[in-house]
Amino acid sequence: MGCGSGVVGVLCQQAGARVICSDLNPNAVQAARRNGILDARSGDLFSSLPGHRFDHIAFNPPYFPGCSRRRMYGMALYGGRRLGVMQRFLDQLPHHLANGGRGWMVLSDRAPAGQKLVTVAGWRQVTVERVDDEVLSLWSTSRTG
Predict the structure, then answer these.
(1) Are strands 134-142 and 124-131 parallel, antiparallel or unpaired?
(2) Does pLDDT of 92 surpass 80?
(3) Read out DSSP for 104-130?
(4) Quick one: average pLDDT of 96-120?
C-alpha cells in the first residue's frame, strides 16, 4: 500500500510472495513496475483492490499531519488534517486482511501523532531502529476470526 518505488514489494517477490502494489501517484506505480513489480496498480488506498483479502499488507503511510504544496511528493509525507489518510487505512484494513492476516506499518519518531493513532487502534510496536538522526519503528496488527 503506498508502494512508492516498490522496494518492499520487490523484496517480498524475491522471497517468493505474490505481490500486488498500489499507490495513488501514477509515477510511483510506473517506478514500481520498472523495478520489477509484476502487478502494480494506481488507486487511493484499497480502491484498486476491491474484494481482495491479503495475508500481509505493508504500508509506509504519509505520517506528517497537514498538506504539502508539492502535490505528488507531499502526498507521500503529509497525510492530511488529523492524519486522515492513516485513519482511512486503519478503518479499511480489516476488510482486506485474510483470517490470520497481518498489517505492517513503518513510522517515524518525527511524527508522534502517527504512533499515537496506531497505538489507540490497538497496533503493537514490533521493533525500533535508529537511521542517522531518525528513529523508525515497525508496527503490526493481526486479524483473527
Answers:
(1) antiparallel
(2) yes
(3) EEEEETT-HHHHHHHHHTT-EEEEEEE
(4) 92
